[in-house]
Amino acid sequence: MLAAFLPRLPRGAHDDVGNGDDAAVLRIGDPRVVATVDTLVQDLDYRPVWPNGRVTRGHDVGFKGVAQNLSDLNAMAAYPIGLLVSLAMPADTPVDWVLSLADGIADAIHTLGAEGCSVAGGDLSGAREVVLTITALGRLDDAGPVLRSGARPGDEIAVIGRVGEAAAGLALLETAPESGSPPGAPAGAALFEELISAQLRPRPPLGAGAAAARAGAHALMDLSDGMLRDAERLARASGVRVDLDTARLAGFADRLAPAAALLGADPMHWCLAGGEDFGLLAAFTPGTVPAGFTAIGSVADGAAELLVDGRPSTTTGWDHFAA
Amino acid sequence: MLAAFLPRLPRGAHDDVGNGDDAAVLRIGDPRVVATVDTLVQDLDYRPVWPNGRVTRGHDVGFKGVAQNLSDLNAMAAYPIGLLVSLAMPADTPVDWVLSLADGIADAIHTLGAEGCSVAGGDLSGAREVVLTITALGRLDDAGPVLRSGARPGDEIAVIGRVGEAAAGLALLETAPESGSPPGAPAGAALFEELISAQLRPRPPLGAGAAAARAGAHALMDLSDGMLRDAERLARASGVRVDLDTARLAGFADRLAPAAALLGADPMHWCLAGGEDFGLLAAFTPGTVPAGFTAIGSVADGAAELLVDGRPSTTTGWDHFAA
After folding, report:
1. Which residues of B are less than 8 Å from A22 in CB distance?
2. Is residue A125 domain-resident?
3. Which one of B23, B36, B129 has the shortest CB-CB distance to A22?
4. What is the model's pLDDT at position B218?
């Protein structure tokens, strides 16, 4: 298995030692290394077969595992240099599925623009379900790291990347055809496929973290658990009041409207409460928000809390009828 | 859970950023970082309850997970600076067991002499069985890394650490009391406990890798899959003939004799074929073998293969009746 698995994984520019020794040696070029780990578990983080009929390919799992890890590096204004991949799986996992997973890892590195990032080490073992654990190592941009604790009163809060799309895609995947029009219905077919892809293959805007750091971002984090939860974390870590302006999120919500109409959902709820988009949330001095970021809120002195349109919000969700 | 888990884990001297951000930043002090990952899976890498009645504590699993990872750094002549811990487990895993696992991680770092090594990041998730994945990051000794591919004709092969003890311990754990005297029988009780501990809590000789590098070791690797398999890997990677001398392993085998007598086993088989001791195997110019290492064989020009007492060996085992 390893003999077929390994050659599909990219070797990188930072590898100092080839494969086959006890550990990898990566040339980092900085006395600091950025490191993060994330695990994807079958049935919890994805369904082998979704209620809408979609089958999860190994490629999807490998791609998402890489994307969510590289997003964490992005949020520290770091560049990926290497991954360590540990895959535990049932003995009867089809070889094709496993090789597809390797291809998904390689595809994510390429598609997300992490060229030069290697798969520097790994481990294959048995388990009752697929458990994919990826460790990502990065080198810092000179301006990084930017922590989530640096937002200052007067700052603008800005976002880059997809907003609400992964949540809309998840809702489509979780909807069985008999419970409404199938997601593949002609009216929104292309959009629905894009939203499903946003859930299965997140696209963290790599490089935007370093760009934010160079633009002087005071705080930076990735959006993994949803705008409300994550913005509240930023507010708490920074000890400031963050106020999100839903009018500035309307463009993101509008894009989701056809899926929301199909499923009887509120697109703004996806934008505010939906996770796994792996965009970035950042705080900037007004006037310094870099290209690509959308200003969506402000930072004020006061209790460390999150407001939405000037009203207290809860991390468990957002009720636009209360606004 | 995380709130109780994290404070039990050591923070380290190399942490540049405290907990709570998207990724860890470790000050490595060298433009190169050494990285390795290993996974322990319930029922495959350990039994929740062993045939001899021993119950595996969370402490055992955490300790072993750390030990086998730090051994890989040791084998590259590197010093551990940080760990990333991903723990997937069933929802009904007792909290005490999980906290015991955290204590085992901390205990291993302390007991193995890896002070200053932090648990810099982690992830907790669900799964049908316990899957513990640890990533270890290290900084290189100036003389490192030492690869497994550098052995030269004329070198001596030497070992440091336990030999055969983890295999003897495994055999004791796998022996139900009804199939013979219980391992706790008075005659060898203290020894048997030590051997079981060797299996559950390996003691890689951290620092010996760097010492070997400073002594000019030509090749270095850790003993995880048994002397025969690992020495053959060294022979192949280096393109040399390695000849192990069982007479020089007799001291290791003698120590295992009471357990072997109890179980009707061959102690030399444990020494040659048993894995998971996590000692080191190294190749040195004759006369430069450092203190603590035991010379056990020689390197000669010729086919890249392993001999035992001058005869070809197989990686599947060793039959002393053939010798």
Report:
1. 36, 71-73, 75-76, 148, 221-222
2. yes
3. B36
4. 98
